[in-house]
Amino acid sequence: MNYTAKITISLKEGMLDPEARAIQHALANLGFSTDALSTARVFFITLQAENVEAAKAEATRMCERLLANPVIHRYEVEVGA
Amino acid sequence: MRFAVVQFGGSNCDRDVHHVVSDVCGVDCDLVWYKDGITRDYDAIVIPGGFSYGDYLRAGAIAARTPVMEAIKQHAEAGKLVLGICNGAQIGAETALVPGTFTTNATPKFICRPVCLRVETEDTPFTREYRTGEVIRIPIAHKEGRYVAPAETLRTLNAEKRVAFRFCDEQGNVTPAANPNGAAENITGVIGGNERNVLCMMPHPERASEEVLGSDDGRRIFTGMIRSIEDRENGKGQA
What we know:
Chain A: Belongs to the PurS family. The complex is a heterodimer. By secondary structure, chain A is of the alpha+beta class. Chain A is 35% helix and 33% strand. Chain A has helices spanning 18-29, 52-67, and strands at residues 2-11, 40-48, 73-80. Chain A is elongated, with a radius of gyration of 16 Å. Chain B is globular, with a radius of gyration of 16 Å. The interface between A and B is medium-sized, with 11 and 19 residues.
């Protein structure tokens, strides 16, 4: 069966996010006040699997093997049909 | 004695390293396309700088998952020398040849300029021709060169004297002002391997290996490697 995994890779708590800081400055220059701003990267992956659990496990392996760097990243996997 | 320089799609310092090893240092050196794999024994393998796979996903991430890196890991596990320079350092860290990672600079822009480095240990095959504490001048050229590692890893690196280089000022002071990319503890060269036989560094020693380029401080990394291999061949302890 086809499943779509939404994988969100973001920086671990406390990690410097230089691009977010630059974006926050740019927003401030436009007059927008923000308390905090962080960035994340989202992957949408369609894959075939036996069931939701199997699809989630496969997407998790993708995170561990390539998509995330455990030194700096955390990841979240959501799977829908 | 024979060196290999591994070329990925996007490597752009491969020929510079090859020139330094073969023409400047006079050692046999092969350029090895990554898909051809490591097909013979090498004394040292260099992963050069560049933009493998366009730095897609993260600098070094995709190159680190190619089969040739398995062969390079085995080469390193056998105690033989691996030098990762710039993108090669990012690939080396992504492959866990050294702990930690190199990520986006604190100011997220490309920096290309000469910097001062303090040699933190002369007890490696790569730094044996320097004196600990010596200040050398080698250029950097990167956007994702900020070294990051968990606090515990940093403690281990310091305790085991596995920090090779830190950014410093001309007097050798390691200060925030002398840290161009925001690296943890100004670290920009890390030693890995059971026999201290891996070095991953962001600065480009091949760009500072001839006086005509403004500095030949980087050449001693290559000559140190060569002397270590000679010592090993002559039975004078480990490379």
